[in-house]
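Is this the right way to post structure tokens for a design question? Let me know if I should format differently. Anyway, here goes:
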């Protein structure tokens, strides 16, 4: 990855790769999850803990079989079914893991494979009954084996006690001097435990080992999320330009314009419209609300029903209540905007004093004139009119008019005199330059 960040901590659709794998196995019914890490992967272990998983350290990097065997200490008291998966497969689904469990019930052990002509994958060689005979790494395969397109995905399901016994017996008699997970089925076969093969789609088994593959995984995940949204009744003019997060909730009859980005934590209710080039994160949008184009909703933004948030409006940690409008060029942060209020262009809530954030409360039906600054903490009452260009620093009572602009002055004829003077200066300069030549 050429990155200081651990591979499995890179995001796909707003969630670390490892998080996708943990979510998939948990959705398949797995009760205990153990993440095997390298010694220095403190960030990976911390994230695993946040996701409710245990972690063990593989002190020496001696291969995939050795890595899986390292989990034995954490699962010494576990007597159920064990599933082994790579932590870099963000597109693996719960359904694939469920199928591996079901196949293991019938055969004693199961692996997951997929069809691909790629030279990068080990081949799953099956017998006449369709059971696994062996797994051969491509570089070690003979000509006949290399023609097989059934590839090992690296997911295994087996009885935990048996698996760890087989993993402990692995040998490293190979060119890499590593203990291969792919040798485990050979030991199972020696114990007369047959191994079923579950076929998954190649895309679902995609691993990530480079920036290029990370981009491919993101592209595939976005296609999956867009298809899911469209199937749920979401309208998209140009779905290929819309980017979703793993937890984006778009209800039926939401309409999404081109080039909209949904970062994590967004819910949009039925009938709302998100117009082009808007960016939403950690926000909730109510029924029939209009957002954008070119709007930004930051974490904590709650946009209630029938609200209008227009172009170049930014909302952060603020509740915009039913029917309120902020149609253009506005910043609303750490605030409440009451129902039916109107926020004029260029209005800002001055919520930060360099040390702390402060709250602005704007009452129902208030009308905030353009280019106004509301200096928090401040309360603007119900039905208030704030004159354009005002700086409000004190509370305004209900239904009052607040105006702080300076008195307008007019100097008759000043503009014409100014223009005549400037023209004369310009003509004199031109004459002087001509004489100097």
């Amino acid at each position: 990855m050429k990155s200081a960040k651990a591979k499995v901590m890179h995001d796909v659709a707003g969630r670390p790769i490892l998080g996708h794998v943990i979510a998939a196995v948990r959705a398949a019914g797995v009760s205990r999850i153990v993440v095997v890490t390298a010694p220095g992967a403190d960030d990976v272990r911390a994230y695993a803990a946040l996701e409710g998983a245990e972690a063990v350290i593989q002190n020496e990097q001696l291969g995939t079989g050795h890595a899986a065997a390292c989990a034995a200490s954490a699962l010494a008291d576990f007597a159920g079914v064990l599933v082994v998966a790579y932590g870099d497969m963000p597109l693996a689904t719960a359904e694939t893991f469920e199928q591996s469990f079901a196949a293991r019930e019938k055969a004693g052990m199961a692996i997951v494979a997929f069809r691909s002509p790629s030279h990068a994958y080990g081949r799953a060689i099956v017998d006449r009954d369709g059971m696994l005979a062996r797994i051969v790494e491509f570089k070690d395969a003979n000509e006949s084996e290399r023609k097989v397109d059934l590839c090992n995905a690296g997911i295994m399901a087996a009885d935990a006690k048996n698996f760890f016994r087989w993993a402990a017996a692995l040998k490293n008699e190979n060119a890499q001097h590593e203990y291969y997970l792919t040798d485990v089925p050979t030991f199972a076969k020696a114990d007369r435990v047959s191994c079923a093969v579950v076929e998954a789609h190649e895309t679902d088994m995609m691993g990530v080992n480079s920036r290029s593959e990370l981009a491919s995984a993101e592209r595939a995940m976005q296609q999956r999320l867009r298809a899911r949204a469209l199937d749920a009744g979401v309208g998209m003019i140009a779905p290929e330009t819309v980017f979703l997060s793993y937890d984006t909730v778009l209800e039926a009859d939401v309409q999404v314009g081109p080039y909209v980005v949904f970062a994590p934590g967004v819910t949009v209710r039925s009938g709302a419209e998100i117009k082009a080039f808007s960016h939403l994160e950690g926000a909730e949008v109510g029924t029939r609300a209009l957002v954008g184009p070119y709007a930004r909703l930051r974490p904590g933004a709650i946009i209630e029903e029938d609200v209008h948030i227009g172009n170049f409006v930014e909302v952060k940690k603020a509740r915009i209540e039913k029917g309120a409008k902020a149609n253009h060029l506005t910043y609303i942060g750490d605030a409440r905007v009451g129902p039916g209020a109107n926020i004029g262009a260029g209005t800002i809530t001055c919520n930060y004093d360099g040390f702390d954030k402060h709250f602005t409360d704007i009452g129902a039906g208030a009308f905030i004139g353009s280019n106004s600054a509301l200096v928090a903490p401040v309360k603007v009452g119900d039905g208030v009119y704030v004159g354009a260009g005002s700086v409000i620093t004190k509370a305004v009572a209900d239904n009052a008019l607040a105006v702080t602009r300076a008195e307008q002055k007019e100097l008759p004829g000043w503009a014409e005199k100014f223009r005549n003077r400037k023209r004369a200066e310009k003509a004199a300069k031109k004459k002087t330059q001509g004489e100097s030549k």
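Format looks fine. Someone answered above. Worth noting: Residues 414-436 form the longest helix (23 residues). Residues 7-205 form a domain with the Spore Coat Polysaccharide Biosynthesis Protein SpsA; Chain A fold (CATH 3.90.550.10).
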